[in-house]
Amino acid sequence: MSRVPNVWAATIIPVPASALALFLRIKARRMTRMGVGYDDGLSIAAWIVALGYSILLIVWITTFYMGQKIGHFDDARIEYINLRSHQILFASEILYSWSIFLSKLAVLTFYRRVFQFSSIRIPIIVLM
Predict the structure, then answer these.
(1) Phi, psi (rounded to 5 degrees) for 70
(2) What is the number of other CB atoms lying within 10 angstroms of the CB of residue 123?
(3) pTM exceeds 0.90 for this model
(4) Distance between CA 118 and CA 72 in Å, rounded?
(5) Could you give the C-alpha distances from 83 to 17, 69, 90, 113, in angstroms and in order?
(6) Is the dihedral of CA 117, 121, 122, 125 positive or negative?
């Protein structure tokens, strides 16, 4: 049983939704004339890295048979697919980790901006 439709859905659906959310966030900031802050910049950076991750997954799905059975290929082809899949997995783990890191940092900088004069500001700075 192929898992490709599930992989496509998990890869393709969140990207436009997150792009729309990011666009609306930047538009709202400009409408209120607040300007772009560090939290917005980190959100944009996290989205760009996540987009790279999604593109890498699409390459993996289309070229190196992610989610498909490869037992019917000859041994040399299976070896090649496994080698490239391991390389893509390594790169995708790095991109995913950086995307999560930048997203969390964006949330912390957003909290720091919102709770400027609160007692929670010190724990936020410590977490950063």
Answers:
(1) -120, 10
(2) 12
(3) no
(4) 62
(5) 33, 15, 11, 45
(6) negative
- The Cβ of residue 85 has, within 10 Å, a number of other Cβ atoms equal to 16
Q: Which two tokens stand for residue 94?
A: 């790095």
Would you call 54 helix, strand, or coil by DSSP?
helix
User: CA 12 → CA 3, 5, 57, 72, distances in Å?
Assistant: 14, 10, 10, 28
Contact 3, 61 (CB under 8 A): no
Question: Using one digit for the tens of pLDDT, what is the confidence trace for 69-115?
Answer: 888 999 999 999 999 999 999 999 999 999 999 999 999 999 888 88
Please state the length of the chain. 128
Burial call 20-45: b when 16+ CB within 10 Å, e when fewer: eebeeeeeeeeeeeeeeeebbebbbb
Q: How far apart are the first and last CA of the chain?
A: 44
